[in-house]
Design a protein that fits this description.
heterodimer, A: 401 residues, alpha+beta, six-stranded mixed β-barrel, elongated, B: alpha/beta, Rossmann fold, four-stranded antiparallel sheet, 30% strand
């Protein structure tokens, strides 16, 4: 008997037991869907994370005030601290410095009102972070000196406020003051995404927050190898400016993007494995379901096996018939599960949790793995029942009612 | 054609050993119509199983068409059943989910034959049941089902047809028709062996073998 005939026989049997076949498949459907979806969510997360960090600049470092409660006096970072780092004689490894100051605030244009991240920056930020203009111009040095009421909008913020209108030259309100939109940015992706507004740091200080403090100083190393030298330079400059004695603890922290990225990626990889394991457990349960049903099916069809054997079926024919039946059940279940996972993944693209949107990245690898695992599950769970069927004694089986 | 020599079958039930067949010797010619009779426990079922290559004797030799069956592997026996033998059972034993044609095609599938559909239709035609070709067993009467079963037994042009109480579930008129159908097959040169406990059925055959306690006690020729 050819394999093709075995496949046809298996299909006949699956189709003649529609309800049972679908219920058996359900286990595999859910298993495959869970594996594909969960692993894809993990991968989507990881990808967003990488994008986020790339946008922040690969050789960038971020200085912020220490949040360590054991340090008694923490001097806030100032605009002057940032200026000091631009001095090539004390900090030769630094190629760009940009102090920033951020807060969430409400922005309105006409009847549209959004609450987004508002950040005061200096033009040097473009040398550190990955900002790309969509339309108009960026904040200039002149805006900074003159404390101009100008803003640049992130891709999503522009879309939410202006829709299809061009925002350039339009006036909007930020915390009650009027600002003019001078530019919009390209889509960046990643967590935090594109819902943001940028204005000159000096404007931010005088109109929104008050005072001369900054929240963060973004620094770029002249080359990625110089990151360690940059850390040393920042430490000595800021310690001196903050009057910290030898032996005293730093009142600021320096965040090195590479390190953060690495540790985050490791966490994410672990997370992905965990999600995969949850999916694998449901696939295992599905496999047990198949084995269970195949065993029931074998004892129910004992007489059929007897008849087939009497008219010339060999052990191998019966073995293949049941094995292919199990594999076909699980492959079909796997395909349905995959389709549902694809549907689920595209639905998930529309769900956003605060500033971050949930995204599932379905890769060809995971599709191939899920399908082969589902067929494998079918074969493994089908082997024992098929073996039981194949070794049935034809005489006993024919007598079986 | 069929040659049984000193066939013994002992069932080992642990504490007791049952001599189901005790030193049976029998030979049948091509085209012979033979009946095997006996009460339950006489060993006629065991005899049928051994003749049908479904079971192996404990000792003795069994030749079909010159081939020694007693020493064959399970797979070789399966091939033997497929190519040389045809079975007709008391309860028809058609697969309920397949049509008459598909049931008749089954032995051809295991034989790996092509052009199965046409051959199955021809076989159904030859037993006068072609009009039920696309019916399922549940849609047919007992007599019709048994005709389909005979068609299935004939499909691979067997040397021997083994019929185990073929009329056990049928009324007298239908029984007569089925026995006539089997008689026809004998006339075409197929050896037909019927196991029965009805003297009326045995009367259709040329030769009746009576079994008791695993031994042949009498043989009658007509």
């Amino acid at each position: 008997m050819s394999i093709w005939e075995s496949v046809k026989t298996a299909w006949q049997s699956i189709f003649s037991n529609k309800l049972r076949s679908s219920l058996t498949m359900l286990g595999i459907v859910i298993g495959v869907m869970a594996v594909v979806l969960l692993v894809s969510i993990g991968q989507g997360f990881q990808q967003s994370l990488t994008t986020t960090f790339n946008n922040m600049g690969a050789s960038a470092l971020y200085i912020s005030s220490s949040t360590d409660k054991t340090i008694t006096t923490v001097r806030p970072l100032t605009f002057e601290d940032a200026q000091a780092l631009e001095d090539k004689t004390v900090a030769p490894s630094i190629s760009a410095v940009s102090p920033t100051l951020g807060s969430r605030g409400s922005v309105s244009y006409g009847n549209n009102n959004v609450t987004i991240q508002i950040t005061g920056i200096t033009p040097a930020i473009t040398q550190i972070r990955n900002y790309q203009m969509e339309e108009g111009r960026f904040i200039t040095d002149q805006d900074t000196t003159a404390r101009n009421n100008v803003v640049v909008l992130g891709y999503q913020a522009a879309l939410d406020l202006f829709g299809s209108e061009s925002p350039i030259g339009k006036s909007l309100r930020v915390s009650g003051s009027k600002f003019q939109v001078v530019g919009t940015m390209q889509k960046m992706g990643g967590f935090g995404g594109d819902s943001y507004l940028l204005m000159p740091l000096t404007t931010m200080q005088s109109k929104i927050t008050g005072g001369n403090n900054v929240q963060q100083i973004a620094v770029k190393a002249a080359s990625p190898e110089l990151v360690d030298a940059v850390i040393a330079e920042i430490t000595s400059v800021i310690r001196a400016r903050h009057y910290i004695r030898t032996g005293g603890a730093d009142d600021f922290t320096i965040q090195d993007m590479r390190e953060t990225l690495n540790s985050m990626q490791q966490t994410m990889a672990t997370f992905s494995i965990f999600l995969g394991a949850v999916g694998a457990i449901s696939l295992l349960v599905g496999g047990i379901g198949i084995m269970n049903i195949m065993l029931v099916s074998v004892s129910e069809r004992t007489r059929e096996v007897g008849i087939r054997k009497a008219i010339g079926a060999k052990r191998r024919d019966i073995l293949l018939q049941f094995l292919i039946e199990a594999a076909a059940l699980s492959l079909t279940g796997g395909l349905i599960g995959l389709l549902l996972a694809l549907g689920g993944a595209s639905l998930m693209g529309n769900i956003s949790l605060g500033t971050m949107s949930l995204k599932a990245e379905i890769s060809a690898t995971i599709v191939i793995i899920a399908l082969s695992v589902s067929v494998g599950t079918g074969l493994i769970s089908g082997t024992y029942p098929a073996f039981m069927a194949a070794k049935l004694d034809p005489i006993e089986s024919l007598r079986h009612e | 054609m069929i040659e049984l020599k000193n066939i013994t079958k002992i069932y080992d039930l642990g504490t007791v050993k049952v001599n189901a067949l005790d030193d049976i010797s029998l030979s049948c010619q091509k085209g012979e119509f033979i009946s095997i009779m006996g009460h339950s426990g006489s060993g006629k079922s065991t005899m049928m199983n051994i003749l049908g290559c479904l079971d192996k004797p404990t000792s003795g030799s069994y030749h079909i068409d010159g081939q020694d069956v007693a020493s064959m592997s399970d797979d070789a026996l399966a091939v033997m059943r497929n190519r040389k033998l045809g079975f007709v059972f008391q309860s028809y034993n058609l697969l309920p989910k397949l049509t008459a044609t598909a049931n008749v095609e089954l032995p051809l599938i295991y034989a790996g034959n092509k052009n199965r559909h046409q051959r199955a239709l021809d076989a159904l035609e030859s037993v006068d049941i072609a009009d039920r070709a696309s019916h399922h067993p549940s849609e047919m009467s007992g007599g019709e089902q048994q005709r389909v079963a005979v068609a299935r037994a004939l499909i691979n042009n067997p040397l021997v047809i083994l019929a185990d109480e073929p009329t056990g579930n049928l009324d007298t008129a239908t029984s007569h028709n089925i026995m006539m159908l089997l008689t026809e097959q004998c006339q075409k040169g197929i050896t037909v062996i019927v196991v029965t406990h009805e003297e009326d059925i045995a009367k259709y055959t040329q030769r009746t073998i009576y079994l008791r306690d695993g031994k042949i006690i009498e043989e009658k020729r007509r």
